[in-house]
Amino acid sequence: MIESYKEDNKNEKMPALIAPSILIAAIAPNLNYLLKHFYELKNYQNNEGQIFIFIVVIIISILIVGAISYWKQIFHDMSEFFIYKKIILRKNLNVILNDILLTLNE
User: Fold this and answer.
1) What's the predicted TM-score (pTM) here?
2) Does residue 72 contact residue 18 with C-beta atoms inside 8 Å?
3) SS3 of the chain
4) 91 burial class (0-12, 13-18, 19+ CB within 10 angstroms)?
5) Could you report the per-residue pLDDT of 67-82, keeping only the tens digit for each?
6) CA-wise closest residue to 61 among 93, 24, 26, 98
7) 8 A C-beta contact, residue 96 and residue 88
8) What is the model's pLDDT at position 97?
């Protein structure tokens, strides 16, 4: 019974709506086009300007990845709480059944 509940929980989970690779595939060409214009500005034609743009882009990219990861974690927690109540009840039932099984084995 415990194994069947675990299998049902796996089957009922909703797949991710937007895969990270799709997001990267959509953002990368647009970012590339935008950065091309920044690198062509006369103020940033020297090496220091190029390095400055590179560092700013890296920092912004890290912040975006961090924000998306944080948002994904919050969305996962909220969806588990609101959408997957049945799954949470099954998980609780599995814990209770495991406890009963352990006490019977002792």
Assistant:
1) 0.51
2) no
3) CHHHHHHHHHHHCCCCCCCHHHHHHHHHHHHHHHHHHHHCCHHHCCHHHHHHHHHHHHHHHHHHHHHHHHHHHHHHHHHHHHCCHHHHHHHHHHHHHHHHHHHHHC
4) middle
5) 887 887 787 777 767 7
6) 24
7) no
8) 81
* pLDDT, tens only, 1-25: 667 766 666 666 555 555 566 777 7
* Single-letter amino acid, residue 90: R
* Residues composing the chain: 106
Joined tokens for residue 61: 């990219």
Distance CA 35, CA 39 (A): 6
